[in-house]
Amino acid sequence: MSKFKTLSLTVGAFVAGALITLQLPAFAEKDARAGLPIEDLRTFAEVYSAIKQGYVEPVDDKKMIANAISGLLSNLDPHSAYLDADSFKDLQVGTQGEFGGLGIEVGMEDGLVKVVSPIEDTPAYRAGVKAGDLIFKLDDTPVKGLSLSDAVKKMRGKPKTAIRLSILRKGESKPLEITLVREVIKVQSVKSKIVEPGYAWVRITQFQEATVPDLAKHLSNVYKEGDLKGLVLDLRNDPGGLLHGAIGVSAAFLPPDTKVVSTDGRTPDAKQEFLARPRDYLRGTREDPLRNLPVGVKKVPMVVLVNGGSASASEIVAGALQDHKRAAIVGTQTFGKGSVQSVLPLPNNTAIKLTTARYYTPEGRSIQAKGITPDIVVEESPNGSSAARVREADLERHLEDKREAAKDESKPAPAKPAGKQDKEESDEMPARLEYASQNDYQFQQALNILKGLQIMQGK
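That's the S41 family peptidase sequence above. Prediction below.
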């Protein structure tokens, strides 16, 4: 099995796949027993000096130090990383839902750029780039030998400029060449529609700064056509995003002050509980966007759709609604990204993204490297699929759960299969699938389940 390293990079953004808190944690309490390893630092200084004096070409001091910092972080876990000035700017811009690029979340496998997921309504998505594609050449530049950051920088560029991707795709006998035109990517965080009288579909594509107020607007709009009998919350292929967004989305459907998620780490700031209350999901002192939600939102029968691309913030929402029996979780096993990254700004407009805590569902279940098990398993199609998806547990140096998470009583009940399944699990969506359409098998099954829930609740 090839090793897959991911930096949770989106081309043009540094936010996909990470549960991020854009705050500077307090690390005032230092471990008094931890002193500086003087001998090891001397060894580092000797290596630094040897490179400085004897390497075949001159190496800039700033570059050497940045590389050293990057190495320190990248060897911790798949989600800790050094952000240079460009990457830090991309992170800040990306959480606002707008950035420049092609619209693909990428990682690296065997020296090639691997597509984790194309983002909806972007050049890559429209051109048919698929999850699992391996990019081996960018224009005329081979990817082998490039770092993931360097490859991402080459894919960035001014809007309306073109780049040619040479791709290896499973099942294709020849390499594919796809030319994409860069554009400013504007990710629409929330989408919704009435799919039939009394039934609504709400999709969250990514958890951003505006996700909670956008969700409130969409819920109000679908209720303008009358009370709902059922609601599908679609979190498939949602790679996550901001922690407060996940808390706010959960709060929209849960009673006030209900526990949503807890975090546990080494510092006091990392040991917290977050509830369905404004102070835990608002940024600043602005008005609570959930204050005037339609009354029916709290009680409408719900199905939450998830798959292997549902990660991080998506898993917080699914776990909270599952633990509180507020919704039926339907689909396939989620990604298993159960850690929190804090962004610590550094001089010269750089920063580090450091894993500081693990998060747990209201009942204390760890999601790290496990994911959320659906209440009802529904594959992509009636016959399942042969494609498999990389998950957190497949990533090199992924974190394990430090708590005694093997408690049998904390494990969810075995999922009940719905429809035929292949032996090899899959949840990869077909290219350009129209969500909530007649061809969306998982959604159609979710609707059928919802109608059953509505009948049961009526009785």
